[in-house]
Structure formats: C-alpha cells, structure tokens
Amino acid sequence: MKSLPAVDVLIIGGGWAGLLMAKELGSRTSLSIVVLERGPARETADYANAMDELDYAIRLHMMQDLSQETVTLRHDASHRAFPLRQHGSFQIGAGVGGSGEHWNAQCPRFLPDCFELLSQTTNKYGADALPADHSIRDWGITYDALEPYYTRVEKLLGVSGKAGNLKGKQIEGGNIFEGWRSEEYPTPPTKVPYFAALFRDAAKSLGYHPYTAPSATISQAYTNPDGISRGGCTYCGFCGRFGCMVGAKAQPTNLLLPIIQKRKNVVLRKGAWVRRILFDSGPKSEARGVTYVDASGKELLQPASLVFLSSWTFNNTRLLLLSRIGEPYNPVSGRGTVGTNLTHQISVPAATGFFREPLNRFMGSGSAGTLVSDFDGDVFYRRALPFLRGGYFAARAYGFQPIASFGVLPRSVKVTWGSEWKKSSISYYDRTGVITFTGEHLAYKGNFMDLDPTYKDKLGDPLLRLTLNWRDNERKMTDFAAAKAIELTRAMNAEQMDPFSGLGNYDTTRYQSTHVQGGTIMGNSPEHSVVNPHLQHWQLPNLFILGGSTFPQNASANPTPTILSFVYRTADALVDRYLKNPGPLA
Amino acid sequence: MRRRHFLTLSASTLGGVLVYSFDRKTTLLASQHKPIRIPLRFFTEKEALIVAAAAARIFPSDDSGPGAREAGVAIYIDRQLTGSYGRDRFRYTQPPFEDAPSELGYQGKQTPREIYRDGLKSLAGFDLLSPAQQDHSLQKIESSVFFRLLRQNTIEGMFCDPMHGGNANMVGWQLVGFPGPRMSNYDEIEKYYGKAFRPKPLSLAEVTGAKVRPSEDEP
User: Fold this and answer.
1) Could you tell me the pLDDT band of residue B29, with boundaries at 50, 70 and 90?
2) N or C: which end of chain A has fewer CB within 10 A?
3) Residues of chain A positioned with their CB less than 8 A from the CB of B100
4) Which value does ipTM take for this structure?
5) Which of A36, A581, A24 is nearest to A307 (CA)?
6) Separation of CA A402 from chain center
7) What is the signed CA dihedral for A100, A35, A538, A152, rounded to 10 degrees?
8) With helix as H, strand as E and coil as C, how does A423-478 read?
9) Average pLDDT, chain A
C-alpha cells in the first residue's frame, strides 16, 4: 500500500462537523489539513436545477448510495438483523456538506437539564423514576459551559428567531421554556405561513406559549462574523432533501467551504472512502493516520499527527469497531463502550387535521412554523404521568409537494385507488395539515450498535448492525402527545382530525428524522464513555470524535446546533491548550 | 437487439393538447384525430397497453378531472424502469434475501423491472376487459408488491415534473393547485391566509431555462 506524505491534521468526513473543524483550524493555525470525503462535490449553483421532487425528494439523489453501504437492524438482540435495503426512517446525506446540505435547518438549542439528565432526574424524582433498563448518562458538561458556543453557532448560521429567555428574563413571544441565552438571535423570526398562524392562535387560546420556530434558513440578508453574506428565504419550499438554490439555508457549502477553499493549508479530497484508523497501543497510545480507497479504487495510507472522526453517527461508530479501537459494548455483561447508547428521536404526525379552507401548502420552508414547548423536557413532567420527559409540538409549512402529499385522507375514507379515492384526494389535497410531535428518546441498555455477522459493504467490510426498538416510555409519551395534538387541531377548527396510530415496533419504513445519536458517547469517565467532554478519545489522545455519535442520549430537539457548539468548543481547546501541550484535555 | 415497440394512443383518449417529453426533448403534440405513437424503452407494446389501462383504473379520467391517460403515466413508468430506479442502482442488493417483519421494509431480490415483467404476466388481456372487470382483477392483486409499486408509480407519473414523461401539460399539478418549482412566495406567504393562491404551473425547464437531465436518462 502506498503511503502518502504525512500531514498535521486528518479529518474523516466533510459534513457540518468536519468542515467547521477544518475552517477553524485552517484559519487559526498554519497546520496542514486534509479532509477526506467519500461523496461528490456540491455547490449552491447546482441546486436551482435540482428543484425536482421526483429525483430529490422521492428517489433521494442527495443521500448515501445504499448499494455501497447500508446498516442492518433488528428490534432485539435475540432476533436476526436485516439490511435496510432502501432509505426509510432516516436519510443520511452524501457528498461535500453531508446531511447539512439537505437538512430542514430547524435550529433549536437543547434544554439545560438534557446535559445532566441522570443526576437531575435522580435528584428531583428519585432513581425509581427512570425506566428499569435505561442507560441514561450525564454528558460531563453543563449548559452554562456550552452557552457561549451556542451563541457563536447562531451567529455563524445567522439563525432567525426571538429569544424567550434573555439572561434569565422571560420574554413573551419567544420560547419562555428555553435555557438562558446571552444574546438575542442574529436575525428576526421568519414569516408565518397560514397553517402555522392557525396553530399559534389555537395554542394561545388553550393557554400555551407558541413561538416562531428558530430557523437557519434566514428571514433576511445577513453577514456573519466570517464575512459570509447570504440573502433571505423566498419560501419556495424546496428545503429538506434539497440544497437551497438561493443560499438562504445555512449549509456547509455556503458558510464553510468558501473559507476553506481560500486556505492553502487545507485540502479536500473527494471520493475518499476511509476503511481503517491506524493506531499504536502500548505506553504511547495514539492514532497514526488512516487507510482509504480513493476514487480510482487504489488503497492508500495517509499518516497524520491529529485525527478527527466526523463521518456521522453510524460511520463514526463503525470505523472504531472496524479499526478495533476501544472495547465493543456487550449488552449481556454491560462491559465495553463502543456502540452503546443508540438513540433516535420520536418524530410523529401526532394529529392530522382536515380543514375547511385552503392552506396553500406549496409555500413555506423546512424550518418555518410555530412551536409549542409547554410539554418539553421537564416542563410538564410530574410523577403521576406514565412516562418520563417530553417533547414539543410543531405546525410547519415545509413546502409540500404533490407526489409525497397526494392521497393523505381521513381514516373514514377507506378506498386507496379509483374514482372515489381520486376525488377525495383532490378535495383534501390543500386542506390537510399535520401537527407533529418531536419527543425525547431515552437511552436503554438494549439499544446499541455492533458489526453485522452476515452483511458486508462494497469492499467486503461488515455493515453496522443496529439493535433498536421503542420502549413503553416512548409509546406512552406518543399516545399522550396524540391526544394533546387532537385538542390543538380541534381548537384550530378543523373539519375532521385523526390522531397518530401509535409507535408499536420501530418502523424503518416511516421517515422520522435524520437524528440518530450514540455509539461513541462522551462522559466523565473512560469506564462509561468513549470520549471526554472535549470529544477527545480516552485512550488515543490525538483522536477526536465529532458529531451526534458523542451524545449520550437524544434530547427531543434537533441536534445540529449542539453538534456545532461542541466542535467550536473542541477547536478552542485544541488551539488554546492541546497544540501547545499535546495530551489529555480532561 | 430488441424490436422497436411503440405505445399507440388514440386521439379520443387524450383530450386537446398534450405535451410529452421523449427522446430527451420536449415535444408539443396537438392531438387532433391522428393516433400518436410513442417509442417505448422497456415495455413491449402489449405490456404498455396493460400498464396504461391499469393506471387509468387507479387514477381514472372522470368528472373530477383528467387522469393517468392524459398525464402519460405509462410513458413515465416505461422510462423509470430503464433508469437507475428500475435497475435498483442505489438499493442494497447483497444476499441473503430473507423474509423480514414488515417494519424492516422491502427485502425482495426483484428489481422494479422484474416486478413489472412478472406482475404484468398475471394481467394478460387486461386492457381488453370492461372497466368493471378491470377493477375486479386489480382488487384481486391489491396486496401484491406489484400492485403497490404500480399505484405508487402512477401517483409519481401524475405529479412529477414533465421532464420525466408524466404529468403531461402539467395536468396533475393543475388538479391539486401545485405551481411547480416556484422561485419565490415571499410576497404571498402571509397574504393569502385562508384563501387559495393558484399561480399558473411552470415546469423546472420553464422556470430555470436550463436543460436538466432527468435521472432516468443518466447512463
């Protein structure tokens, strides 16, 4: 195998996390940096010609090519696993920018107690309030320590919104349940589509506290601290599963790539498929670099002094397992840390309402809408409830397109094809609105990842195997949410309404969200975690792991701003401390 | 080498003006009295007639508006099956193939092309039946993988961008008031609360003025 000249920094994966680290280290140091991205190049100029529902939202042309690699899934460790042969419950992006290109740009912070979930819940309600088979952990960091980084991320992205808690002072119109923030959002809230306005008024009438969803698809022109200018959103509705054709949506290719491309010390290699991270064990344990297969199929060795693993939850976990770094988690003995604490996110159409008047559903953006957080986190929790934690309701106007939206009918209509079905589907087409519920998915001992014994990727390496199912906590929370969402839909004066039918077993065929966490979690001790709260590997101090794989559990809110906050914090620790004196940061 | 096959559509089933994009260019066909012959890429003529007839029962042309025949759904499906989708270019197709719980998704080995080729055998002569007989024979296969695919592809062919061969003359978009890839709704989004806003539909090519190659035409 050919060995390439050594570099200072190697970054595996050119998505949000990897490219933000490349931008930070590339601009603040003169280190030589190589980013290895296995997908193709992407840029804003490509996206106007990609406003095609069929190729992008149905055939999913921005997503990972599953013919090359997928994951397998089983509901329980006693079952056999099957490959996810087509995209389903999550949709992982491919190419430069990763999932950060096709995201919906919903941009909330996590609630403060999410970072200390185990200790705070135990202190307040006692250990018996936690489900018997949970594996909930504290993160080893507090919200207060992370707050300055959240503020930096919001300035980087130009997030649109209204503060609900400015330095402890509650402000009506914002999310009054959010953690304190040191500054107002960089840009004002987005416009409010009709359906979101109906929901806002209904929620107010029921005594809740609706607010306009924080959005990284920005409401007006904005120049960020790096000098990158973007225009405001036009509400064309081609957001999730698409790249933004005007660049109003914050994407790695419009915020980070322009800076990286100007830096001579940063090189982005596309079509580079990393197979193994190489490391030395023994007294001086450290990562040495990686092996990867380039676009022409040649396998190469790239030595590096500092390695960042930022290739999304699944591949971060899989590369550690394939490289035999750390001890794989064993659910029977409870030993091992790699692969533990797999969580997804509850994301359901809690109630579907059929309204009397047209909603003009083609207008909107992936993050425009109204949210209600009165049932999120610990806000509403009480011992009498049959579940722990909560989530938030949303009335969003994604910009609905007809292939995916046609034929959503009240349950009272039984036909699924033919004249009567067609007539009903046309009649309800623009009068259908969904109240979604996004809820916290707790971590359990029995939900984890390891290598599949049967199925392989295109190079013959084992696929990652997910063992994942819902528990009663998620099922009961969702049933509760469906009943609340029906009350809200009724207050919106819907003509007919149907509640969500229930979670049942984890269903890979229903899209939920592309927010999967765990596998390489952070924590305060190497006994229970893979990295420390600076995202530094406990055993290999020159290996850092970035992304949702480091989250001990899901936190109801979407993860991107939290992921980026941790990247900023790690970049600071590297520049201020590690580079001067390499070694453990915690 | 496969013999050239055509789908011949009679003017009476088509209505007034029809836009089909085929052979990678958009052609406007004013269908008067002459039948129109469309070259097929995957189906035989017999198969295409069955697909057209079945799609027309799933999404009929009736008093609620035009349906699969006017939209050109059979042509759309024919093209999809020759492209990456029909060949399962992006699906994980490594063995073993085994039956799984329904929550694990389609686990079959058959590609969409193979599902159609097999499924159509069970519908031989379908296009010659009366509408009531056709409905009856579709009801019998309602729960099959083939029917579910045909139903899904019919919806796609009704509402896709016309560059894919379906939604001819944007008849599908007009049915539901979808304007296509409209670049800006900035001025309208807070203006039309509770009132229908129905701009005239435009296709992607009309909006951008660029030639976009649909995925089914990629090698």
Assistant:
1) very low
2) N
3) 82
4) 0.96
5) A36
6) 26
7) -50
8) HHHHHHHHHEEEEEEEECCCCECCCEEEEEEEEECCCCCEEEEEECCCCHHHHHHH
9) 97
Q: Which residues contact A378 (CB under 8 A, 6 or more apart)?
A: A111, A113, A120, A124, A389, A390
Chain A residues 467-496 within an 8 A CB cutoff of chain B? none
Residue B174: other Cβ atoms inside 10 A: 16
- B35: number of Cβ within 10 Å: 13
What pairs with residue A93 in β-bridges?
A63
Residues 6+ apart with CB under 8 A from A137: A117, A118, A341, A443, A521, A523, A528, A529, A552, A553
A61 touches chain B (CB under 8 A): yes
Please report the pLDDT score of residue A114 as a whole number. 98
A534 is catalytic: no
Contact A430 B176 (CB under 8 A): yes
Q: What angle do CA A232, A47, A153 make, to 5 degrees?
A: 50
- Return the domain boundaries, chain A: 165-246+346-439+470-504
Q: pLDDT (tens digit, 9 = 90+) per residue, A167-202?
A: 999 999 999 999 999 999 999 999 999 999 999 999
SS (H, E, C) A421-436: HHHHHHHHHHHEEEEE
Beta-sheet pairing, A432-439 with A346-354? antiparallel
* Beta carbons of A191 and B190 less than 8 Å apart: yes
pLDDT at B1 exceeding the cut of 90: no
**Closest residue, chain A, to B170 (C-alpha):** A402
Instruction: Give B-chain residues touching A503 at CB under 8 angstroms.
Output: none
Compute the radius of gyration of chain B from its Cα atoms. 19
Q: What confidence tens digit (pLDDT) does each residue in A345-394 have?
A: 999 999 999 999 999 999 999 999 999 999 999 998 888 899 999 999 99
pLDDT of B21 over the 60 cut: no
| pLDDT exceeds 60 at position B30 | no
A530 contacts A545 by C-beta, under 8 angstroms: yes
| pLDDT band at A268; cut points 50, 70, 90 | very high
- Is residue A340 within a helix (H) or strand (E), and if so which, with residue range? strand A340-343
* B chain contacts of residue A90, beta-carbon cutoff 8 Å: none
B129: number of Cβ within 10 Å: 15
3-state secondary structure of A308: strand
**DSSP-derived pairing of the beta strands A299-309 and A2-3:** parallel
Please give, one letter per residue, the 3-state secondary structure of chain B: CCCCCEEEECHHHHCCEEEEEECCEEEEEECCCCCEEEECCCCCHHHHHHHHHHHHHHCCCECCECCHHHHCHHHHHHHHHHCCCCCCCCCCCCCCCCCCCHHHCCCCCCCHHHHHHHHHHCCCCHHHCCHHHHHHHHHHHCCCHHHHHHHHHHHHHHHCCHHHCCCHHHHHHHHHCCCCCCCCCCCCCCCCCCCCCCCCCCCHHHHHCCCCCCHHHCC
| CA of B37 vs chain A CAs: smallest distance (Å) | 26
Q: What is the largest CA-CA distance in chain A?
A: 74
CB A275 within 8 A of CB A462: no
Residue % of chain B over a pLDDT of 90: 79
Cβ <8 Å between A194 and B59? no
Strand pairing report for A299-309 and A543-545:
parallel
Q: CB of B52 within 8 A of CB of B73?
A: yes
Max CA separation in chain B (angstroms): 58
User: Which H or E element spans position A83?
Assistant: strand A82-83
DSSP H helices, A10-132, are: 16-28, 99-102, 117-125
- Expressed in angstroms, the distance from the first to the final Cα of chain B is 18
Q: Please say if the pLDDT value at position B174 is more than 90.
A: yes
Under 8 Å CB pairs connecting chains A and B tally to: 183
Rounded to an integer, what distance in angstroms lies between the CA atom of residue B161 and that of residue B201? 10
Quote the pLDDT of residue B143. 95
